[in-house]
Design goal:
77% of the residues lie in helices and 0% in strands. The chain contains 16 helices and no strands.
């Protein structure tokens, strides 16, 4: 008991400042309509001097690591087997292909641009699955390293910005291409990065489009489990200080370094799966599910705030044009791929 109290005394200053920044980000996002993760990042970076304060450092590290993992685990409450089954096998196949091929493109771009595979998995997974949440989940499967936080922060900023652009542009594109309500829902749910932007774009078109877009998006979220397993395998293998082409791990998009190796399937991925099964076969009360979803969001925003506090703006500005081009190309690839799959499915 004394050990817990002592640990709490060490952690509480950093936990409190992370909570304050997260609360401010949630308030601004609710009132101004911008991505909450982006607000959390920017506000966290604005007070990054706190991470150098000996009193706050341990708590900020705790939120960026452990609270993040609980936020990812609780995402499992968003999905049930019935939601997936109701859509039939074709949308499931479409989502699996889209996510897998987008990650493959991310890995190819990373190799072509001289980055180690982690950046391709991180950027491709965040674009293909669920934006900032996926980036945080994939990064959580890797051992801690300063370059990991830098790469994660860059990807979160990129996908949050592109997701907001897509929320505005993709509904107009769907109308211009003459997609019906279900096709438009499949396209929006299969291409926009963050869940909130999918909901905004889908229900902004129609109820039916919003329903279809939300279910497709949740299918993409379910792909977190196999992708986290792949990330864990990468973490087990990519411990060398240089890649096959001789590039140093000092690259902004190259966070892998020797460290404690994680298990093949991290505990938060196991909890994620268990919550899906629990909510599928033993439906939980709506109030409990809503509370879990709200807690997940708060945890992820707090973790993003803590990661922002650990990062300096000059680290983001020094990444160069290649990582930006990679995320943009992956986003364009996903949109073209989904349109192609929709044409084949007609």
């Amino acid at each position: 008991m004394n050990a817990w109290m002592a640990r709490g005394a060490v952690l509480w200053p950093g936990v409190v400042v992370s909570g304050v920044v997260a609360t401010a980000a949630l308030f601004l996002a609710e009132h101004y309509g911008a991505p909450v993760m982006l607000f959390a990042l920017l506000l966290g970076m604005a007070v990054n001097f706190l991470s150098d304060d000996g009193r706050c450092k341990a708590g900020i590290e705790f939120v960026a690591r452990e609270v993040l993992r609980w936020g990812v685990a609780l995402l499992g409450l968003k999905i049930t087997a019935a939601q997936v089954q109701a859509m039939g096998w074709q949308p499931v196949l479409m989502v699996v292909l889209a996510v897998s091929l987008t990650i493959a493109v991310g890995l190819l771009l990373a190799r072509w641009m001289g980055f180690r595979p982690f950046f391709g998995l991180l950027s491709g997974g965040s674009v293909g699955i669920c934006g900032a949440s996926a980036a945080l989940a994939i990064a959580a499967a890797f051992p801690n390293h300063p370059q990991k936080d830098r790469a994660t922060l860059f990807v979160v900023i990129s996908v949050s910005t592109l997701s907001t652009v897509a929320m505005i542009a993709y509904p107009m594109l769907a109308r211009a291409l003459g997609l019906d309500e279900q096709q438009a829902g499949f396209f929006l749910g299969g291409t926009i990065h963050d869940v909130a932007q999918v909901v905004g774009a889908g229900y902004g078109m129609s109820q039916a489009t919003g329903d279809a877009a939300t279910v497709i998006k949740l299918m993409r979220v379910a792909m977190l489990v196999p992708v986290i397993m792949v990330a864990s395998v990468f973490a087990l293998r990519l411990a060398a200080p240089t890649d096959s082409s001789g590039h140093s791990s000092e690259s902004a998009a190259d966070p892998v370094a020797p460290g404690k190796r994680p298990p093949l399937l991290p505990w938060f991925a196991v909890v994620f799966v268990l919550l899906i099964l629990l909510n599928s076969f033993l439906p939980l009360p709506a109030a409990m599910v809503d509370a879990g979803n709200a807690l997940s969001r708060v945890c992820l925003v707090a973790a993003m705030s803590a990661i922002g506090m650990k990062t300096h703006l000059k680290d983001i500005l020094s990444v160069g044009w290649k990582p930006v081009a990679a995320v943009v190309l992956e986003t364009l690839w996903l949109a073209l791929l989904m349109l192609g799959l929709l044409q084949i499915g007609r």
